Amino acid sequence: MSSRTTWLVDLGNTRLKWARADALGSGAVQSLAHAEAAGTDAQDTGFATIRPDDRAWIASVASPALTVTVEAALRRRGAQIARAATQAELAGVRIAYAEPSRLGVDRFLAMLAVHARPSGATLIASIGTALTIDLLDADGTHHGGLIAPSPTLMRESLAQRAPHLPRDGGAVVDFASDTVDALASGAILSARALIAHSLRAARRRLGATPGLLVAGGGADALLDGWRTRAERAPDLVLEGLGVYAKSTPQPPSP
């Protein structure tokens, strides 16, 4: 029996995350911010447990340059690399996009992960650099989605145009009496309103309200204090990458 280990690597817009496929869900996910991930020493240290001939599946929405850098670090460990790509249909999921390459692989993998769960129809909201929303019914049919700035990006964009405005901090309230709370509230409540609108639209389309699953680094800030029923899924892309790997057992190296 082969002792080859399968690794899952999620290179997002702001962070690099990775884990052993057989340890996902046990708190074994490691991560680096992009500023750290671009450094050779940090990558080599982080990937130190990867052995020659291990297989590393990578899903990247980062820049081509950073993707190449991360792949080079994996190759230095002797890993065999396979890169995930959005497909029109896989593992029971059928996407709405006529051109699969235009749907981010992170969104596609999130849908694979959700469909592999016994969750029924689900609205998937991912809060990272962008806020993405996708509707997946119980049969695995993707009904399309939305993309908007995340609360973090909203505040960063305002601060770029108006440097005196704080980029973070503040509490979420209905009507703020100071600027930092007004910024925090405006950003978070805007995102919540878009998700709530999508839940109502999903109910009209499906005839029932789907479950709400929230992923990404901004999930806690969005959900804390919001009286809505939702499930957090911090490693959804890695979960979906695991499904992808099982559904594509012998991929070519990129």
Q: Can you offer a commentary on this structure?
A:
With 254 residues, the chain is an alpha/beta fold. The chain folds into two domains: 6-83, Nucleotidyltransferase, domain 5, CATH 3.30.420; 89-238, 2-Layer Sandwich (Nucleotidyltransferase, domain 5). It contains eight helices and twelve strands. The strands form three sheets. It has a five-stranded mixed beta sheet, sandwiched between helices. Strands 10-9-8-11-12 form a five-stranded mixed beta sheet, with helices on both faces. Helix 4 (105-116) packs across helix 8. The longest helix is centred in the last third of the chain and has 28 residues, at 179-206. The protein is globular and about 60 Å long. It starts with 5 loop residues before the first strand and ends in a 7-residue tail after the last helix.
Secondary structure layout plus pairing:
Elements: E1 6-11, E2 15-20, E3 30-33, H1 34-37, H2 40-46, E4 55-60, H3 64-76, E5 80-83, E6 89-90, E7 93-94, H4 105-116, E8 122-127, E9 130-136, E10 142-149, H5 151-161, H6 179-206, E11 211-215, H7 219-223, E12 231-232, H8 236-247
Parallel strand pairs: 1-4, 4-5, 8-11, 11-12
Antiparallel strand pairs: 1-2, 2-3, 6-7, 8-9, 9-10
CATH architecture of the largest domain: 2-Layer Sandwich
| Computed Rg | 19 Å
Query: Under the CATH scheme, which class of the largest domain?
Result: Alpha Beta
Strand order of the largest sheet: 3-2-1-4-5
Q: Could you say which overall geometry the principal axes of the C-alpha atoms support? A: globular
Helix-strand string: EEEHHEHEEEHEEEHHEHEH
Helix content: 25-40%
Q: What is the fold-level CATH name, i.e. the topology of the largest domain?
A: Nucleotidyltransferase, domain 5
Low-confidence runs (pLDDT<50, min 5 residues)? none
